[in-house]
Amino acid sequence: MQATQLLQYLLAGIATGSVYAVVAIGFTVVYNATGIINFAQGEFLMLGGMIAISLAPMMPLPAAIAVAVLATGAAGVLLQIVFLSWLKNPAVLRMIIITIGLSILVREAGLHIWDEKVHALPFFSGDETSSLPVLGARISPQVLWVLFISAVMVIGLTLFFRSTLLGKAMRACASNPTAARLCGIRASTVVTLSFFLAAAMGALAGCAVSPLTQTQYDMGSSLAVKGFTCAVLGGLGSVPAAVAAGLVVGVLETASVSVLPLAYKDVVALGILLLILVLRPQGLFARTSAAPARPGG
Amino acid sequence: MVLVQRGLSALKLEFYMTQLTMSAYYTLVALGLCLLMGYAGQVSMGQGGFFAIGGYSAAVLATTGFASWASLPAAILITGLVALVIGIPVLRLRGHYLAMATLAFGIIVLRVLLGTNVFGGADGLSDIPAFRLFAGLAITGKKALRVQNYYIAWGLVCAGLLTAINLVHSRVGRALRAIHGNEDAAAAMGVDVARFKLATFILSALYAGVGGACLAFFNGGIGPGEAGVMKSVRYVALVAAGGMGSLWGTLAVSTALTFLSLRGAFGVYDDAVFGAILVGIMLCAPQGIFSLLARRDGRGSPR
Amino acid sequence: MSRKKLVLCLGLSAILTASGFAADTGAIRIGAIFAITGPAANLGLPESRTLQMLVDDANAAGGIAGKKIELSMKDSQGNAEKALSFAKQLVEEQEVLAIIGPSTTGESMKLKGYCDENQTILISCAAAESIVNPVARWVFKTPQMDSFAAQMIFTTMKKQGISRIGVVVSNTGFGQGGKAQLEKLAPANGIDLAITEVYESTATDLTGVLTKIKAQNVQAVVNWSVEPAQSLVPKNMKQMGFEVPLFQSHGFGNINYVKMAGKAAEGIVFPAGRLLVADALPAGHPQKQVLSAYKKEYETMFKEDVSTFGGHAYDSFLLLTEAVKRAGSVDRGKVRDAIEGLKGVAGTAGIFNFSPTDHNGLTIDAFEMLTVKNGEFAVYRK
Q1: Helix, strand or coil, per DSSP, at residue B92
Q2: Are A273 and B115 in contact (CB < 8 Å)?
Q3: B217 in contact with C, Cβ within 8 Å
Q4: How far is CA C139 from CA A126, B18, C51, C135, in A?
Q5: What is the DSSP letter of C280?
Q6: What is the per-residue pLDDT for B299?
Q7: How far apart are CA C251 and CA C269, in angstroms?
Q8: Interchain contact, A138 vs C239, CB within 8 Å
Q9: Is the ipTM of this complex over 0.90?
């Protein structure tokens, strides 16, 4: 394989991978705060994209995206408050089923609010034929936007957790809920905030990627599975690990085209998931040898 | 129970029988899943995958000149083997991980079916010949043999139900419920947790495989959609709504909802209905819909 | 347990008695199965709208041969098993005269054997040649053959001096059918298929596979699918700087695909029926009247551009009504025979001439090579 071909795969893989990374981060954030795997995570990307697309003809693009992000964040909060908040220490099985059901409902709502057609946001810069040369390979400028936005989100989130009071409170809740409560940190605030963050970030990623991969009401489920794969690969605990895992999976998946029949591309991510779950459920980067202990898990 | 079915078939609504027959095969899957989820407490989001394996195995064998009578048992065997191979590593997982692993399994089956020409790609296989049993009985969709097939299908469901009931009331059933309650405690009591979980997993896969193979013969064809995520989710919804610990409840709910769905009663909201059921049941009636009717719940149910 | 048994009995009885069965009102019962929602909705939605529009028009004018039409339309969501299930319902329960649809090749192939066996007319709106070859007595189709489409593409390529190409198709029946036709006809046309790849119909990024094709130094790319991937391929190609001509199949015949691809769609060449360029046809053209009338009515009623897919439903209904008039009865056998005898019927896809061995009725002349110019469909002139 020539160097340019390799580079082309790498770039495409990183772009795809950064979307997976954002989904994985969404899973991680919610899981850390609540112990819940929110299967509806993928739908937030769909919602963000769709809302922005509906708003785009009426206002400048950045405004449309901002509104979409906030609206989806609100939707995430709504989901949590209406469906999940009043359950007292539910069984894991029940939670799994509920979030799966929620993801279906959000998807179907998307179908009926918009339609089954494929839509896309306009390119942030240039248009669908723009092509930038990068060390011999060529990519759309939108790819750079996706990478840039994902990087900003990751850095922003890391800073948030490390430096702000609220962020530290979230981390406290994740590592020791009882102690956190004793310190006066309200668990319900943390939970709601985590859903807001996960949903908002998902929405932003959904908007960034929309010009490239187009937005459709059912795009959420496969993203959720792949994002989960990356989250597990990264150990469900740390944001940077989830990002690294996302990039790895993205690149592997894209490069697999050169050796596997194209039809099996999706099997790559799934195969990775099964292997990790079976061989090393705590992920590649975790230090302990047991799966993270969570209430009710 | 069986009397009820016979009474219904006397009504002149012939076509309903075809759809009830199809519902029967889907209900078989739900029963198997009920055993796994309700009694053994293991979640599986991949039953659609086993259904498809059973169906496609039968289809491929039957259309490539394999001895006709052997294709059904062979399909069942293949399903069981896959369940064994998958089950051993996967059942070590719990909770979310198990759910995701079985989901991943189901999707892998779907992708392999879609991507491989032998399986007909996105359009599946068609023109599967009838499956001849004996003395003129055959599993097929031909109009003339409708009544016969109706009994065959529901006969299988009854057999499956009786097997399951016997299992539940036996030592095995008690062991399963112990595992469901608390795996570590059960292990401390001397229950071979891994073996029981695997056995139940394989059994539920077999139920799904039989359903798939028979439906493939009945419909004369099968498509990759059977391995899809939505189908697997539906089975979970049906079991949850019927009451995870209740075989009868699952039977009733599965028959009713599958039949309605086949008749197109839900229109474009078909998937949404099942999603709503999942959420609604889990929020309001985690023991299943019949627990809302009964004042006290007498059957052994999961938490 | 007895309470549950009671509920079960009551429930099932209620379900069974709740739906009555079709009373014989002397009307003509027609069934339709389309992929109104789901991945093939770009096909099924215009088809369902067109058919409903035509049936309403016909009934307003007194029906066919004095009888009203009862249309029973089902949404298969592009799912072949659902389509079969609905077909069984339509045939066995509602005893329809004919079924129009389904929208996709995969679904049609599933229904082919069934309808033939149960002696119900099936007029499919799907493209693959395998639907009518081998011929099944009761199965017809209205879209043009994919084999003709492939031939048109190769003929155009030869004129441009292209001899080495790469092919990407989706993994659906339509895509696979197209691939088979391209592979079959390539040698005779002197075209070398350097590389052929099949992609997932739900793929969201095809840069990887296109990179692989670009490495083969091809002079042109052919994409064969009906999914939104039709818009992805041109975009990805431009973004990676893959500047070779792109040919599409006749599945490109919906302006939505052009809109989705934006500027990347300029210059795409594909075969299609003349519906898309109806305004550009000369006044004396045999199809002009049909095309213009349909286009005007559809666009006024639904406020969206016509697509070739809606046209297939139009043709199906047209042929059925012509056959009923000619047969003078609604007996299935007689109507079936009448369809086979139809000649010179001008539809949206072309001029139909049926026979016992030709259940599609169209020749390669039904196709016109089109291209995209300034975001609109235009006739391709070389």
Answers
A1: coil
A2: no
A3: no
A4: 49, 23, 19, 7
A5: G
A6: 46
A7: 12
A8: yes
A9: no
CB contact under 8 A, A138 and C37: no
Domains by residue range for chain A, with CATH? 3-122+136-279 (1.10.3470)
- For residues C51 and C313, the answer to whether their CB atoms sit within 8 Å is yes
Instruction: Note the Cα C27 to chain centre separation in Å.
Output: 27
Tokens 């050169």, residue located: A258
pLDDT (tens digit per residue) in B182-237: 767 777 776 677 788 888 899 999 999 988 888 888 877 787 878 888 888 888 88
Return the SS3 of C26: coil
**A:266-295 residues touching chain B, CB 8 A cutoff:** 266-267, 270-271, 273-274, 277-278, 281, 291
Residues in chain B with CB shorter than 8 Å from the CB of C5 are 1, 4, 248
* Domain extent for B246: 2-293
Give the closest residue to C185 by CA, choosing from C218, C150, C134, C219.
C150
Q: Is A218 on the interface with B (CB under 8 A)?
A: no
Q: Does A215 touch chain C (CB under 8 A)?
A: no
In sequence order, what are the residues at sequence separation of 6 or more whose Cβ sits closer than 8 angstroms to the Cβ of residue A81?
A: A192
Arithmetic mean of pLDDT over chain A? 82
Query: Cα distance from A103 to chain B (closest Cα, Å)?
Result: 8
Question: How much is the mean pLDDT over chain B?
Answer: 78
Token representation of residue A75: 């939707």
Region A253-278 average pLDDT: 81
Question: What is the CATH T-level fold of the domain C26-144+291-366, as seen in this structure?
Answer: Rossmann fold (3.40.50)
Tell me whether residues B282 and A92 touch, CB distance under 8 A.
Answer: no
- Coarse DSSP helix, strand, coil percentages of chain C, rounded to the nearest 5 percent: 50, 20, 30
At A71, the pLDDT band (50, 70, 90 cuts) reads very high
- Could you please state the CATH topology (level 3) that the domain comprising C146-272 is classified under: Rossmann fold (3.40.50)
Each residue's pLDDT tens digit, A243-265? 888 999 999 888 888 777 777 78
- Whether residues C79 and B123 touch (CB distance < 8 A) is answered with no
